[in-house]
Design goal:
alpha+beta, globular, Acyl_CoA_acyltransferase, acyltransferase, acyltransferase activity, transferring groups other than amino-acyl groups
């Protein structure tokens, strides 16, 4: 089941998923980087629109939207490869006719996923960790 995240308890679990997923997926960036940004991300989540996949009444994956910008799709490792990313992306695609996102070049699974979902790379840049990020866009 997918639903909009609205409660403080849900937000707490969502921030844990964010941290766990980033550390797991972005092993080319020190875990301390993600940990040091957790408080800031929790604040930003308050202003974002967040939709989560629930299993047994617990969030296991989510998408964060700031307008038509996808701040990220995060899925706990044990729940990956179940189509949750595609379902969450579909929520965003139904709301907007154009979507933007940034993804690390080294996160090849995510890059391949977004390309498969008809996103195209429009730019690349270096981030604060000296890692290449792709800026990608999708249009209906």
């Amino acid at each position: 089941m997918i639903k909009k995240v609205t409660t403080e308890d849900e937000m707490g679990r969502i921030s844990e998923i964010w941290l766990e997923s980033n550390i797991e997926t972005h092993d080319f960036i020190a875990a301390d980087y993600w940990k040091s940004h957790l408080a800031e991300v929790k604040q930003l989540m308050i202003e974002a629109e967040i939709y989560a996949v629930y299993e047994e009444e617990q969030p296991v994956a989510f998408i964060g939207l700031v307008g038509n910008y996808i701040a990220g799709i995060f899925i706990l490792k044990d729940y990956q490869k179940k189509g949750y990313g595609k379902k969450l992306l579909k929520v965003a695609q139904q709301k907007y006719s154009e979507l933007h996102l940034s993804v690390y070049e080294k996160n090849q699974n995510a890059v391949a996923f977004y390309k498969y979902q008809n996103f195209i790379i429009i730019e690349q840049k270096m981030d604060e960790n000296n890692e290449v990020e792709y800026l990608m866009v999708w249009t209906k």
